């Protein structure tokens, strides 16, 4: 099993609230905006799902989330911690479940069609995650795009 499959499977296992529906990467409006598979592939693109990563510079955790992103995502916290607590940001984004809640909140707020295909899907969420809610039409860094696309293709090939 290659490293992408192992990393993403670990993250999906960590984030899974139910069986992940990988039959498509397009979202319906009643569910959380980002599927577990999509979260796993964003994680793979951002850090190769390296759970040892903590805060470095202005980014934290395996999703490499900034304070502004976490704030725009609704300032989720761990186990009743107050959002204005000095450690609320780092405690959340260094923990995969809480970081995923920040991403869901961010995508609810900024979800948009970044690639012009008429759909808001995982490909758009990956761009929004990397560039933010106001600049998602930019050119993705090669390494991020390659990791993301390889991950998505790994799961799409399993269902086709």
Keywords, please?
single chain; 160 residues; mainly alpha; two-stranded antiparallel sheet; 50% helix
Give an overview in words.
By secondary structure, the protein is an all-alpha fold. It contains seven helices and two strands. It has helices at 3-15, 36-47, 67-72, 88-93, 96-110, 122-131, 142-159, and strands spanning 55-56, 59-60. It has a two-stranded antiparallel ribbon with strand order 1-2. Strand 1 and strand 2 (59-60) form a beta hairpin. Helix 1 packs across helix 2 (36-47), helix 2 (36-47) packs parallel to helix 6 and helix 2 runs antiparallel to helix 7 (142-159). It is globular. The two termini are 19 Å apart.
Task: Give the proportion of residues in helices.
Answer: 40-55%
Q: In percent terms, what proportion of residues is strand?
A: under 5%
Query: Strand order within the widest sheet?
Result: 1-2
Put simply, the count of helices is 7
Tell me the span between the first and last alpha carbons. Answer: 19 Å
The number of E-state strands comes to 2
Question: Looking at the structure, what is the overall shape?
Answer: globular
Unreliable segments of 5+ consecutive residues: 16-29
The radius of gyration over CA amounts to: 15 Å
Describe the main β-sheet briefly. Answer: 2 strands, antiparallel
State the order of secondary-structure elements, H for helix, E for strand.
HHEEHHHHH
Average pLDDT over all residues: 86
Could you say which structural class the secondary elements and strand pairing correspond to?
mainly alpha
């Amino acid at each position: 099993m290659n490293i992408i499959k192992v990393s993403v499977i670990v993250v999906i296992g960590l984030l899974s609230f139910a069986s992940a529906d990988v039959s498509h990467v397009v979202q319906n409006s009643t569910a959380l905006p980002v599927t577990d598979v999509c979260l796993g592939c964003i994680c793979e693109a951002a850090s190769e799902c390296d759970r040892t990563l903590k805060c470095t510079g202005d980014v934290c955790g395996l999703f490499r989330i900034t304070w502004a992103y976490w704030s725009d995502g609704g300032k989720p916290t761990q186990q009743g911690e107050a959002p204005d607590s000095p450690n609320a940001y780092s405690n959340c984004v260094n923990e995969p479940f809480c970081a995923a809640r920040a991403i869901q909140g961010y995508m609810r707020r900024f979800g948009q069609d970044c690639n012009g295909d008429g759909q808001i899907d995982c490909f758009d969420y990956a761009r929004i995650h990397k560039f933010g809610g106001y600049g998602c039409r930019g050119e993705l860094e090669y390494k991020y795009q390659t990791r993301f696309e390889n991950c998505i293709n790994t799961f799409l090939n399993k269902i086709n």
